[in-house]
Write a structure and sequence with these properties.
By secondary structure, the chain is an all-alpha fold. The chain folds into 2 domains: 54 residues, Homeodomain-like (Arc Repressor Mutant, subunit A, Orthogonal Bundle), CATH 1.10.10.60; 146 residues, Tetracycline Repressor, domain 2 (Orthogonal Bundle). It is built from 8 helices and no strands. The longest helix has 31 residues. It is elongated and about 65 Å long.
């Protein structure tokens, strides 16, 4: 068996810590998720954890980056596996709602207690996520045009704005009861929104 290099071993240990942090923060939230909890989950000592990360904020940021990468890998793979513009569009718009509901409360909680430097990094990461979503939507829109499914009188900017506003509704900082109510409403009504958007952009006749 080929032995791991020192660099590979370090990266593997770092990945173990990040995955442990994701589990701890998902279960306990940001404020209650401690370095001790993360170290215990990763089955290492706190001193070892601090060798790789100098603070809880640093671990959290790496966990968020990994969560973003995993989310887009999953959604892009699932969308690519579907046949036809309409099915791919439905998946691309529907899948993020539950993800946002599950993860945004932790991001909001962290942002409210982060040092300013980390807040800027977190906001930049969220903006990256929105832009990547927009790029996926734009690529799908172009595929729909190439398949002669999308009415060429329809503006991509209009479509992008509708989807963006829909996603942003789920990022608002409501209290937990309001958020649960709004998210349930969003999930119930998202198919209606998708139907309305598709009616506006698909060629008919």
């Amino acid at each position: 068996m080929e032995e791991l290099s020192t660099n590979d071993t370090l990266e593997l240990k770092k990945a173990t810590i990040i995955n442990a942090a994701m589990e701890v923060f998902a279960k306990n939230g940001y404020a209650k998720g401690s370095i001790s909890d993360i170290a215990a989950k990763a089955e290492i000592g706190k001193a070892t954890l601090y060798y790789y990360f100098d603070s809880k904020e640093a671990v959290f940021m790496e966990a968020v980056k990994l969560a973003y990468r995993q989310f887009f890998e999953v959604i892009e793979k699932q969308v690519a596996s579907l046949e036809g513009f309409e099915a791919r569009f439905r998946a691309l718009v529907r899948l993020p709602i539950r993800y946002i509901y599950d993860h945004v409360p932790i991001l909001v909680e962290a942002r409210n207690s982060f040092p300013e430097a980390y807040v800027a990094e977190l906001e930049a990461l969220q903006e990256y996520g929105r832009q990547r979503m927009r790029n996926n939507l734009h690529r799908l829109f172009q595929e729909g045009m190439a398949e002669n499914k999308v009415d060429d009188r329809f503006s991509f900017e209009a479509l992008s704005n509708v989807v963006h506003d829909w996603m942003m509704m789920s990022e608002l900082n409501w209290d937990i009861q309001e958020k649960q109510m709004i998210m349930q409403k969003l999930e119930r009504e998202q198919d209606v929104l998708i139907d309305l958007v598709l009616y506006g952009i698909l060629k008919r006749g």
